[in-house]
């Protein structure tokens, strides 16, 4: 008897029980969960940490391997010099320069220690750790600046400019050199860019009201408005974290443009145990706090010694030093073809500053009886707003190229050149 073609053969023998629709659905869901878990490791704040397959080395051996993994950590040699420079009565410009140099590797170590802790935790806690410690350097510097009453040199807007134009521009340039048209998760990028615009709108409203004569800076109405907007922005940030980590997690897990980016299957190196990572987090945070206080106390004297304006130091130099870790990570990931990670670092960091760090600073100023409001100056706020618009147009199609990176870098150079001549007026 002639055998029927394979395509015409019945899939099941007669009398064999057919699988139920519920079992088929469960099987499909299980397959999708496995595929999703493999992709989530390179998705910005929603990074999923698989259980490490290798046992972490001893604390000392792991610390040595971690410090040897990045050439930036050679600058750690400047940390003890920066800590004793003030006590030795070195020139104030030298003290400030050493403090900036020492902040660079410490910011990188803070990010690395956060990653090591996140490897040993769940996906949700991993995302919260990245969100909390991602901008710890900027937050610590801003707190000490606030304690010393340096309301006009809080470098938070400069950090947004540095991340959106400098870091993102270098990432697009690096990715465009490696690949003709790098693609990324459009949903995540547009969400971050839109939230950034809303946050900058919250900064622009009090400034415009002051400009048209409806507010007087640092009066009761201005402070009430700024604190109310800060509470609203902070709530929006919490809702975005919940949206990203819980209700719509799948939108941030899927590959951009139908899976254009391939996962190379490489596991994150495991240098430390959970306890070891927490020890490094504590040590680095204390060192950054000490150097941040030294930075803020020597800023005005260093600006005068270097013949630079406080605006240029606060909006250009300090953010570049504080964002060294983000800059290095974004460029490296973009060159490896992981544009989702690069954009998660650059845009995600800017969004966290605008929706979390700035509102927290305003509320802390309320507690510390410092009249910090959301008025960072008309020129500064308008520059940040225009930059957020440029970034939105860059990321809206879910792909980029090296020319767009050059455009972002050129925009940042224009702003830096303008701040070189800009003089910040003293607050009323």
From TrEMBL:
Region (Disordered): 1-20
Keyword Lyase tagged: no
Cross-referenced InterPro entries: CaH_exchang, CAX-like, NaCa_Exmemb, NCX_ion-bd_dom_sf
GO MF term list: calcium:proton antiporter activity
Membrane topology: Multi-pass membrane protein
Record key words, sorted: Antiport, Calcium, Calcium transport, Ion transport, Membrane, Transmembrane, Transmembrane helix, Transport
Subcellular location(s) per record: Endomembrane system
Pfam families linked to this entry: Na_Ca_ex
Residues of the Sodium/calcium exchanger membrane region domain: 94-245, 279-420
Residues spanning the membrane: 72-88, 94-112, 124-146, 152-175, 187-205, 225-243, 270-291, 303-321, 341-368, 374-395, 402-422
Top-level taxon in the UniProt lineage: Eukaryota
Major subcellular site: membrane
GO biological process: intracellular calcium ion homeostasis
GO cellular component, one term: vacuolar membrane
Protein name as catalogued: Sodium/calcium exchanger membrane region domain-containing protein
Organism expressing this protein natively: Prymnesium parvum
Source taxonomy: Eukaryota, Haptista, Haptophyta, Prymnesiophyceae, Prymnesiales
